[in-house]
Design goal:
The structure is a single chain. It contains 11 helices and 14 strands. It has 342 residues and is an alpha/beta fold. It starts with 6 loop residues before the first strand and ends in a 15-residue tail after the last helix.
Length: 342
């Protein structure tokens, strides 16, 4: 039952890129009474209406159902991107931990579950048109991130069948960026030694134009607004989330005043595989393979049923993120700590 003081919401993974924005969006909603943020390491950051609880969904020791008791909704965001060289470890956190969250939601009688899926859950699709939420969610099997997102989609299919009384929403956002996420995402995808000051458009005289490298992006705060609407609006099912325009070498070259140079997929992948093999790059070549195959998403359903539209274009998001890279931007949580390199 909803508290007379407002809805009580639990957010897993509340201190990361998406979690910090979701907590902030919920805290600003007058209809939300309290937020419980779960994280492996609780922060000093104290947003309004929010209390913290230490929880590691991958360890299996935390009694999640006790933490969920009395909640009106659980927003499940917790996710481990690394280590890419140990997929069994990310499976324990992302898949087995996710299943523990779902089971605890049912055990605690929480009426709403909002789950962070991803464009990465989709099977390979077109780059010249957009697909809606009915596109198959089989993922790209060679990339751990996509396998795990797709597996949880199948798990939720069964969960919804067995628990029709629970309103389940699956958010499938594009790549999410904000200024404060720059240091975290540099560590996850580019490596700790990647110099942030090099993220300057004026230094990019040439841009590699790899066939298939056309993706969508979204500001994390815009995604967070969609999560807030999913909590407070009586909707079910999946929602694509992305901003326009799609990003490719042509769009970026025009914005940065650079010249796109055609590069074969094999050459680009070989370079990434070599850097990954030498432990110079934390992002695996398998994830690069997946990115080349991700479909472009149609967000009509989110516009019409959630009343959601992004407030920033994808190019504005990229500008903000690059500024954060140059400045070593971060936030007051352990995953989001800032660090300037170079």
């Amino acid at each position: 039952m909803t508290s007379t003081a407002g809805r009580q919401i639990v957010v897993t993974g509340a201190t990361g890129n998406v979690g910090t924005s979701v907590v902030k969006a919920l805290a600003e909603d007058p209809g939300i009474g309290s937020i419980t943020g779960l994280a492996r390491r609780t922060p000093d950051w104290t947003p309004p209406k929010t209390r913290w609880a230490a929880a590691d969904i991958g360890a299996g020791r935390t009694q999640l159902a006790d933490l969920f008791a009395g909640a009106d909704a659980v927003v499940h965001l917790a996710w481990a991107f690394q280590p890419t060289r140990d997929p069994a470890r990310t499976w324990r956190t992302n898949v087995l931990g996710g299943i523990r969250v779902f089971e605890a939601v049912a055990a605690a009688g929480v009426p709403v579950l909002v789950h962070a899926s991803s464009v990465g859950a989709y099977a390979p699709g077109p780059k010249d048109r957009q697909v809606d939420e009915s596109w198959p969610t089989h993922g790209w099997p060679d990339a751990a991130y996509c396998r795990e997102k797709a597996y949880l989609e199948r798990t939720l299919d069964i969960f919804e069948r067995d628990h029709p009384e629970i309103r389940v929403v699956r958010m499938r956002p594009a790549f999410l960026f904000k200024r404060e996420s720059a240091s975290e995402q540099r560590r996850i995808f580019g490596g700790r030694l990647l110099p942030g000051p090099l993220a300057r458009p004026e230094l990019l005289h040439f841009l590699p134009d790899v066939p298939g490298l056309r993706v969508q992006a979204l500001h994390t705060d815009d995604a967070a607004e969609a999560y807030r609407l999913a909590v407070t609006t009586e909707v079910r099912g999946a929602f694509n989330l992305a901003a326009d325009p799609p990003l490719d070498a042509g769009v970026l070259a025009e914005r940065f005043g650079a010249r796109p140079v055609r590069m074969p997929r094999t050459a680009a992948r070989s370079a990434i595989a070599a850097a990954w093999g030498l432990h110079l790059l934390p992002a695996s070549p398998h994830l690069f393979d997946a990115v080349l195959r991700l479909p472009l998403m149609d967000c009509t359903r989110a516009h019409e049923e959630l009343g959601w539209r992004p407030s920033r274009t994808s190019t504005e998001v990229l500008d903000e993120f690059l500024e954060g890279m140059r400045e070593g931007a971060g936030a007051a949580t352990e995953p989001m700590r800032g660090r300037k390199v170079g």
